[in-house]
Amino acid sequence: MRLFYTLIILILFQNCSFDNKTGIWKNENIISTKEDTDLFREFKKLASTQVFFDKIIPISKGFKLEKPKQINNTEWTDVYYDKSNNFENFTYNNANQILFKSKKLSKYKINDLILFEKNNLIVSDQKGNIIIYSIKDKKIISKFNFYKKRFKKIEKKLNLILENNIIYVSDNLGYLYSYNYKENKVNWAKNYKIPFRSNLKISKNKIFAANVNNNLIILDKKTGSVLKLIPTEESLVQNKFVNNLSQTKDLTFFLNTYGSLYAIKNDKMNINWFLNLNRALDLNTSNLFYSNQIVSNNNNVVVTANQYTYVIDVKTGSIIYKINLTSLIKPLITEKYLFLVSGKNLLISFDLKTGEIIYSYNINQKIAEFLNIKEKEAQIKNIFMANNKILIFLKNSFILKFNINGELEDVQKLPSKINSSPIFIDGSVLFLDFKKKLSIIN
User: Fold this and answer.
1) Which of 51, 64, 377, 381 is the most exposed place for a label (fewest CB within 10 A)?
2) Alpha-carbon gap, residue 59 to 69, rounded angstroms
3) Which helix (H) or strand (E) holds 100?
4) What is the pLDDT of residues 97-144, one digit of tens each?
């Protein structure tokens, strides 16, 4: 009998360790959608024949990365923050306290990507509702639905961008419209017959969008009239990858589902250069192209595709270098450096000019060493830079705080469970939780 009890205690001890108490590895709060699951499986299948970079490379002794300029951001009018899809070095108060939690914003599934302008949070849901929540008044001040009863049962996938009180919206039904949320009126609305499948970008008087046929459409911002349609290669088989747009002052970059990257001149609307990144000759389901959102700056376009990470010259379209690794989340670039989390959960920093790896650290190992727990696998959600630190948000509502040289300095659990992609506004982090409530963390 004594032997029996001893065995039971050993089994319990084996299964109970400090990592279970911290909750850092637990993901029971994550509600994975079918799309998320399918996308991950698809990506793994795409990458199964590729041997990816998995080395640990410590930073050279005495080397210090230059810190980019820090900004106090007050608006988030593009779903990917700005024209370039890249994040800046945000100011963050870092008190990790809940300043405010709203009431439930919708009873329907809410879009993961949120907007913010003039103290107003803008979200959309699968029923096509656009919800304006006033932070100042602490209430929903407007709820608008463009769709008639015959579309009631169809799930809407809305793509939003915001400029001076006007929300431009494209959808999976083929509509694109302009809605002034301050005046609660539609400026114009048109049905272009083919579903849209990209984020939106604005350049002066033009709106850039793409549809499921990989056509890039340039529209007049004031009327919705088509200024130009640029057809590109159509994929034989569609996957979960969504066409993606990024911009500089002069160019719009369009990455289509076929794997081709186009640079379009914003003023003349003609193709400056294009480049195919899908090297597969056999376009069957195992060779489908996949990428994160592209990011750009004045000199480079960065594409993290399913086989390689590409750094491309903005002016010529030439590949400066490609690296045998990829990332499941959008990378982060500064003027001199590229930061990404690889598919192997490595935090990697590159010299953007040379492609040389400055450091490569295993995030799972860093967590285990910092908390003195058994190593498992963390589920990464987003990467940001704030207060000169690299912040990695985990899907189970933890934040990992690395210094810019790649050393883990802190692990914090958010006081509210995170569901949507977070945004940084005036030193605080805003996001929606699993109950569709807005949380503001100081």
Assistant:
1) 51
2) 22
3) strand 98-104
4) 999 999 999 999 999 999 999 999 999 999 999 999 999 999 999 999
